[in-house]
């Protein structure tokens, strides 16, 4: 009887472990091991609801790798995958554990964080871009830059999709400015 009980408990524990693994697989991006779009959306909305109840602001960073397609075309998808993994690791390392970091798909990443001092945001963005560049060089991946846009909740009820869209629009403006500056630089300094 004790052996049967032990076997049942071992089976239950194995089932619980399998369930935890399946839940993790369903929530994580397989390449970067950070939250996927589904988990990011769910967790970010929970953070927004909590922020509204407790009265703190939330910031959404929308991060896009500049010239990512060119990297894949010239250096191959293995180099592109490495650049994405490095970005995910940079975000996990240099943002707080309580911040939600996820990959929407392709080369688009999002970080959702509680922010008490908006003046520190430029420091956070600079830290991410600088550390990403350092990590790429250390891992012998060609140097890439990031376009980052952001938006804030401002203590109002707001769905995550709206916050994400605002950050996406800001990122798009930064990406256009990057492309324009690159085009201008190439025309004044032809190679």
Fold and architecture overview:
- This protein is α+β, with helices and mostly antiparallel strands and 191 residues long.
- Helix 3 crosses helix 4 and helix 4 crosses helix 5.
- The protein starts with a helix and ends with a helix.
- The protein is built from six helices and four strands; from the N terminus they run H-H-E-H-H-E-E-H-E-H.
- The longest helix is centred in the C-terminal third of the chain and has 29 residues.
- Helices cover 61% and strands 16% of the residues.
How would you sum up the global shape? globular
Radius of gyration over all CA atoms, rounded: 20 Å
Helical content (DSSP H or I, runs of 4+): 55-70%
Major sheet strand order: 2-3-1-4
Tell me the number of strands.
4
SSE pattern, N- to C-terminal: HHEHHEEHEH
Q: Could you say which structural class the secondary elements and strand pairing correspond to?
A: alpha+beta
Tell me the number of helical segments per DSSP (H or I, 4 or more residues long). 6
Binned strand content: 15-25%
Instruction: Provide the low-confidence segments as ranges.
Output: none
Task: Look at the structure and give the mean pLDDT.
Answer: 89
Gap from first CA to last CA:
81 Å
Largest beta-sheet characterization = 4 strands, antiparallel
């Amino acid at each position: 009887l004790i052996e049967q009980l032990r076997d049942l408990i071992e089976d239950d524990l194995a089932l619980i472990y399998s369930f935890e693994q399946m839940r993790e697989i369903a929530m994580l991006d397989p390449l970067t091991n950070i939250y996927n779009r589904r988990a990011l959306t769910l967790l970010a909305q929970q953070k927004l609801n909590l922020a509204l109840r407790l009265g703190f602001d939330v910031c959404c960073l929308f991060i896009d790798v500049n010239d990512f397609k060119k990297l894949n075309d010239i250096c191959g998808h293995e180099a592109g995958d490495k650049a994405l993994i490095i970005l995910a690791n940079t975000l996990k390392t240099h943002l707080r554990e309580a911040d939600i970091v996820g990959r929407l798909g392709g080369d688009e990443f999002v970080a959702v964080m509680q922010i008490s001092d908006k003046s520190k945001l430029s420091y956070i963005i600079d830290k991410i871009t600088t550390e990403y560049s350092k990590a790429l060089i250390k891992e012998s991946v060609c140097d890439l830059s990031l376009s980052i846009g952001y938006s804030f909740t401002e203590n109002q009820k707001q769905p995550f999709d709206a916050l994400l869209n605002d950050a996406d629009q800001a990122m798009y403006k930064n990406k256009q400015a990057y492309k324009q500056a690159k085009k201008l630089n190439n025309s004044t300094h032809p190679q």
